[in-house]
Amino acid sequence: MKSNALNFSGGPGALPETVLAQTRDAIVALPDTGMSVLGMSHRSEWFSAVLEDAEMNLRHLLGISNDYAITFLQGGSSLLFATIPMNFAARGAAPPEYVTSGYWSAKATIEAAKVTKRNIAWDGKATGYTQLPDLRTLDIAPSAAYLHYVSNETVEGLQFPACGTGEIAAPLVADMSSDFLSKPIRTDAYSMIYAHAQKNLGPAGVTVAIIERAWLDRIPDGLPAILDFRTHVLHSSNYNTPPVFAIYVLMLVTRWLRFDVGGLQAMQRINESKSKRLYATLDALGDAVTIHADPRWRSQMNVSFTFGDKRLDQAFISAARDEGIVGLEGHRSVGGLRASLYNAVTEDAVDLLCSVLNEFTVQHV
Ligand SMILES: *Cc1c(COP(=O)(O)O)cnc(C)c1O
């Protein structure tokens, strides 16, 4: 079989080769049931075991205590932009606070305003979303329903340092769609963490939500059941037909992280080494390229940059494709180039990208 191209796309992102091989086999027949995974019932014992396996691996990888529920939702992170304020902008609390630091957090901020009164705690638009605030220094009322932020701005390539427990006065809610499981985090610093699968953990169709159980009591009655997070916790992510295939692949990825990679500290070391190599290569190219992010906030997951000359951006995409590298087009909102270094992008693939960058620059700049 022809081998998989080296996928540097911002999403759907690269998946580990061993997971792809298991998935290929599972589409024909699962080893344990003899049936295609695509035909497996969501009410089967097999699927209950898959859900338990995925949840157990997530608890193990992130050290998530039983004070938190883990649930698998549909509708992507965009649906959560709407349902989080529906569930948690509780009556009686002060309005939720939103950090607007890039394309995705701006969407979350806009969607929240359709549901509730909300405050903007910080806005990076004036500086072109190249910087991030220190969350600890924001002026947030402790009575705010929550503070929402996006831990890694996928489009611009900006990443917050992880939060420590008790650093923020209000309950903390984070969209971690593009850096979830890339490094260890203090989950107990958050009241809710969410991340859809298609950047770093599997195919599109499923979104992981980790919610403090005590916080579920704040949810007002009267929401449509499908939009009420308690429904999905109560029904163990099996209220209506869940995306069995996406959850199965996500479970395989969590197994890969636990047993092949050896956990999130090991994953973090690999991710640090990949991003260091790419940024060092880009920095050494001097004026030939511009990196979007201010150096203090450079993301380990998404490296957004441009040659400045649009024709060179296009020419580089072609030169990289000739070496089997794909997915370098920048997001349609900012253009340029973006190399996404998700967990399944190997160090060898990054080395190849760096050498293609060096050769290309020698020839064209
Ligand atoms: C890609 C992305 C989204 C959009 O997610 P959908 O699942 O397509 O709705 C939201 N937040 C972040 C941080 C993203 O990177």
TrEMBL record:
L-glutamate binds at residue 43. The modification N6-(pyridoxal phosphate)lysine is found at residue 199. Pyridoxal 5'-phosphate binds at residues 104, 154, 175, 198, 240-241. GO terms for cellular component: cytoplasm. It is found in: Cytoplasm. Keywords: Amino-acid biosynthesis, Aminotransferase, Cytoplasm, Pyridoxal phosphate, Pyridoxine biosynthesis, Serine biosynthesis, Transferase. Pathway: Cofactor biosynthesis; pyridoxine 5'-phosphate biosynthesis; pyridoxine 5'-phosphate from D-erythrose 4-phosphate: step 3/5; Amino-acid biosynthesis; L-serine biosynthesis; L-serine from 3-phospho-D-glycerate: step 2/3. Its main location: cytoplasm. The keyword Amino-acid biosynthesis applies. InterPro entries: Aminotrans_V_dom, Pser_aminoTfrase, PyrdxlP-dep_Trfase, PyrdxlP-dep_Trfase_major, PyrdxlP-dep_Trfase_small. Residues 7-353 form the Aminotransferase class V domain. It holds the Pfam family Aminotran_5. One of its GO terms (biological process) is pyridoxine biosynthetic process. GO terms for molecular function: O-phospho-L-serine:2-oxoglutarate aminotransferase activity; pyridoxal phosphate binding. It catalyses: 4-(phosphooxy)-L-threonine + 2-oxoglutarate = (R)-3-hydroxy-2-oxo-4-phosphooxybutanoate + L-glutamate; O-phospho-L-serine + 2-oxoglutarate = 3-phosphooxypyruvate + L-glutamate. Its cofactor is pyridoxal 5'-phosphate. Catalyzes the reversible conversion of 3-phosphohydroxypyruvate to phosphoserine and of 3-hydroxy-2-oxo-4-phosphonooxybutanoate to phosphohydroxythreonine. Belongs to the class-V pyridoxal-phosphate-dependent aminotransferase family. SerC subfamily. Homodimer. This is Phosphoserine aminotransferase. It comes from Paraburkholderia humisilvae.
